[in-house]
Amino acid sequence: MAMMEEGARSCLLQSRSSLEQDIRASYLMDHMISDGVLTGDEEDRIRSKPTRKEQAAALLELLLRKDNQAYISFYNALVRESYGDLASLLHNSLPLVSPEAEKSFSDGGTRYVQAVLSEGGVPQRPVVFVSRPALVNRVREKLYRLQKEPGWVTVFGMAGSGKSVLAAEAVRDHALITECFPGGVHWLSVGQLDRSDLLVRIQSLCFRLEQQSQEKDPSSSLHRPPGSLEEAKERLRFLMLRRYPRMFSWTSRSFSSGCRVLLTTRDRSLADCVSGSKSEVAVESGLEEDQALEILALYVNGKPQRLPEQARSIVRECKGSPLVVSLIGALLREFPDRWAYYLHTLQQKKFKRIRKSSSYDYDALDQAMAASIQVLSEEHRELYIDLTVLEKDVKVPAKVLSVLWDLEPEEVEDVLQDFVNKSLLFRDCHHRPYLYYLHDLQLDFLAEMNRSGLESLHTKVVCQYQQRYSQGPPTSGDEECLYWFRFLTYHMAKANLTQELCSLMFSLDWVRTKAQIMGPAHLINDYVEYGTILDKEVRGHFQEFLSLNGHQLEQRPFPDVVQLALSQPDSSEVYRQALLQAQERATRGGLYLDWVNKSSLKSLSRLVVQPHQGSIYSACFSHDGTKIASCGSSKTLRVFKSTSGEKLLEIQAHDDEVLCCAFSPDDHLLATCSSDRKVKVWNVERGTLMRMFEDEHEEQVNHCQFTNTLRRLLLATCSNDKFMNTKLWNINKPSSQNTMFGHLEPVNHCCFSPDDAYLSTSSSDGTLKLWEVSSANEWKSIDVADMFPEQREQTEVMVKCSTWSADGRTIICAARNAVFVFDVETAAMLLEIRTSRLSTVQYCHACPSSNLVAIALSHYAVELWDIETSKKMADCSGHLSWVHGVQFSPDGSLLLSCSDDQTVRVWETKKVHTSSAVCLKRDSDVLFNNGDITVVAADNRNRLQVRGLGWRHTHIHTHNDALQITRHTVRLRNTHTHMQYQTDDLETHTCKTSSPSLAPSPQVWDMSSGELLQDLVCHQGAVLACDVSPDGQLFATTSADKTAKVWSSASWECVRLLDGHQDCVRSCRFSWNGRRLATGDDNGEIRLWNVKDGTLLKICSRDNKDAMDSLHGGWVTDLHFSPDNTVLLSTGGYIKWWNVEKGEALQTFYPTGANLKRIHVSPDFSTFVTIDNIGILYILKKVE
């Protein structure tokens, strides 16, 4: 082993007696162990000595037998522990030949600077050091301002934020010392000293100053040491004012010395009581992640990018605290395999196991934090303890604490200012009013200190809230309101107030108010998080309601929650509360509709989320199943929880539509590709861009996918490029690793085999190709276009996508309206699944845990097939437009689908039922007879369904053409599908009727004789609707030319031209008194006209468009007035009731499907019947 330099060894021997007299070996050994120059056994032997002096002697004896590195480490330890005077004895003999010595002391300063700082006891840079230049420059800027006059620069921050290292670094500057402080710089640590120890420190400083003065002026004499603290202060002030225009570095306590002082402290207000100019520099509580990782890497002699994952977790857990990072780094130097152990220590808040810090006056981290709190007054200390209940990373306004402490807001702000001044609390000044928060370490310490009283502290929060808001929760929407809605349930759960929690969360009023202010995802998350506390059955009712209606609750204006809840099953607690509220509001004139036949319908979706404003082209589960990522035409990428839809991340990802997104195997990365021809890789946790590939694809990139394992992480992409359309990327390299050549048309999809050995590609050239990933060579090619011999020459066959079975033995692909299953080894077709010829397969995905394959179809449906039995197992209906993608969760228990209707739906695989349900077509007729309701409609199997409320339907089998029901018989007709039901008991009192036409000419008929009375050419576009006034004197027509006209039945002349609609006018209806005409267009707008003079009375319209890009969720297809002419009913994407006089919406009913074609109304306007586009029948009755 190398020996210590002779000069260094001699210096140690000469200074031995002084060192033995003063040092505490236990403090110094922590640093030396961290530096790796002392072992644990050596430390134990030294600690076994009975007295402090004997321990010091044993340490020096051991040190004399070690090398230069041990000398340097011992010196640094003296500096860090504020033995500046003793360190100065060793400074001139520091070995300069050691690389470590150069790292420690070659810090950019000149030898003059090193000498000045060493004489003044200023700590040297620690062996492991990462610069914070912005803060250092800020401190130096403040110090330069003290060049001509005395004053104070206060560097403040919480315990462990690196204030002392920062201050020492700031004065390590040749220009600063020579220009501003030619007399030198002196460092004095006084933070935790009692009066006697403080007196000793000041006596020593006065002695050094007088000794230096005597060296310059031999005629001056040394004074006796000051005998009291007051005398010492005066002596120091005299020396500073009269003899030394020097700087003075002071830590933690202050008194007016009349010199230039750089003060590091946790108490920002410490310098308030002194004279002179004052300025401040706030030190952030944590390092940037890269800086913290660099420190850890230096300690373990590695590179930041090669540190284990626990390194980032440690930095995140302590929020980059320089103190904690340095501490753990020093411990890891000796035990480099203890990453997980020290992370666990932090997570479990075992602060006592974190040993003494390198520049600290405490034996453990918890002592440092306790000391910060002890400086508070007793009253403020109790208030500070109340902050234990706060959640990490949560900022609260003063008004929340005003409720908690029952104090006026101004009093609260004064208390918080005191906490902020003492670095016990942080303030976010970017918000008005200010928001306050605790550092994670402070919060962890408070939680550990008050572990036994946590429940009572949370109970206090709940009680104070209930006292302040006894009449109902706040609804202002400000920061205080948001806090209570977000965290009241958390406080109740922590306080073990189960009854109060259930009462709150099982209240429809709470659900309505919170959903309106915060959205439904937070509510769903509460039911998931506190599911073990809540009643399982009732929790299921509320969670299901929110999961299936969450996309509606995101709409603005906010929907009527009571009306939404009336669509829940009759056995649901949600429905029970909604019905009671609807009945009570109906007595006050409210309008509510009960869906009376809903018991026959079972919802299949588990969750419905509307993450984007626009079509959603791709969605995928994370590999742990907890998150879903989605992207689409909005150009954004969004990540949300798979249980609640709560947004976790949203990124403006590309300059054009985002076509695909994919998680990496460890879920740390997300890849996206776009029509902008770029491929990007994102950090999921931070939302930052990690890599962008933008130069190799020349056309839109259609799909991207990571390998299934991390063994060799690659990213595959495919595009519309002519030749170089499939590429493999190593995300750590700037260019592609391999390009697959073979497809001559765009490649729509690519997919790795389960073992990552092969990549499948699906192309518009009609082929499915399999490639060896290792060589990028083509392995097999399957001509899928051959499966369509009758169509191949007419149109091209596009292979949309492919998916591998879980065992990798079969591969499944989609083309046109079919799905094919091929054997991978032989390329033989094993199974063919043909769907409706009117639909195309958009996507397919194989379940990783079963034989199921999910198929996304253009006719808005998702089907599940068993490829072993060749049977369709389920229909998943609910989407309102084309379904672009489907994917099973990793365990196969869930299935997601995404659509042009802007929603992502999550389905429970085991709960979707066999596809035996009969879907009705939208053309129907209804008979209302003394309270009985009979519905007649054709179904999807071309059978006539006759249904009555409360009795089973019957079937009338017909031919395979479209059905129409006329007034007397059931007959076939291949054109219009208008349907009317009539019996001998009902007769029409209108002698003439008109029918719409796709031509610009409506026809008028005599209903008794069947004679054509008039064929009018009246519009420049197709006539879409017509209606006859109740007295038969007028009739109205509407057209695709965006106009409506009123005609005289006597003269066949147009008496009114009604224009102003911005889209096709699709519906019209006269009021029963004939005074008004309502018209509805394809933009969802309804106009009310005065029939007498043609003036516009009202426009019934929402303020903004909704998810269906219409003011009514779709075309306005039908209109009805109430018998008293006060209410107007309209259908489109949903059903609305309007106040005719005001033009304001009274109520909205949201069907499961959309595109309602017609609605039937009972004579008393109390019952309404319609069928949506997915075949669901709605019988709605007004709640009385």
TrEMBL record:
Keywords: Apoptosis, ATP-binding, Cytoplasm, Nucleotide-binding, Repeat, WD repeat
Gene Ontology CC, one term: cytosol
InterPro entries recorded: APAF1_C (IPR041452), Apaf_helical (IPR042197), CARD (IPR001315), DEATH-like_dom_sf (IPR011029), NB-ARC (IPR002182), P-loop_NTPase (IPR027417), WD40/YVTN_repeat-like_dom_sf (IPR015943), WD40_PAC1 (IPR020472)
Superkingdom of the source species: Eukaryota
BP GO terms, sorted: apoptotic process; regulation of apoptotic process
GO molecular function, one term: ATP binding
Pfam families xref list: APAF1_C, CARD, NB-ARC, WD40, WHD_APAF1
Keyword Repeat part of the UniProt annotation: yes
Subcellular location: Cytoplasm
SMART domains in the record: CARD, WD40
Spans of repeat WD: 651-692, 740-781, 876-917, 1016-1057, 1058-1099
Range of residues in the leader sequence: none
Span of domain CARD: 4-93
Full protein name: Apoptotic protease-activating factor 1
Organism (species): Oncorhynchus tshawytscha
